[in-house]
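Handoff note, outgoing to incoming analyst
You'll be picking up this chain. Sequence as last confirmed:
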Amino acid sequence: MRQESSFHQLWYLKRRWEFVSYETCLEAAGGLVDKPKGRALYREYLNQLSTDDSEQKSHGFDKMCRGWAKGTKDFKKAILDDLEDGIDQKVVESEASEIREPRWERGLSKILTVLGRSDEDLETSRKGAEWKVATARLLRERYLTPHRWLAERLHMGGAGSVQSLVSRHRRAMKRGDDDWEKLINHEFLD
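Most recent structure output, in case you need it:
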């Protein structure tokens, strides 16, 4: 039987678990009602909450236990590497959010290799360097890497800045952006 999140079930009324009070979730998010508009506002609330550190802290996120895998980054990466079946790997990744970070790191490593760059270049290049923006865009589009992680790992300032730069890059679709052309023409194997 396929497991789905309660958020997914919020949108599909026939799939809802009987033991979850969806009305309580919506009410706690600002008195929202279990109707399409209320659910859409709840999604917006969760999106906003995912980027607001002070709001997360006020809700006690910093004290919550996360994930099922306890161990070092190398241990979590080894778990991911051991999963040969792509379907199993995707299921595990969707269930264990902290296991996604090694995948982002692996993707970044491949991108740096393709571009002939290093971790040191991430630290020393300017925040809005074209190659960094192209890297952030590919990681975002291919791996759904969060803007906050991109901002920190690529040394690009704040999450909002990364989001803006990536969005602008996507809209501009500049010809002659050699780094972007290298990346989209390179075959990345997950």
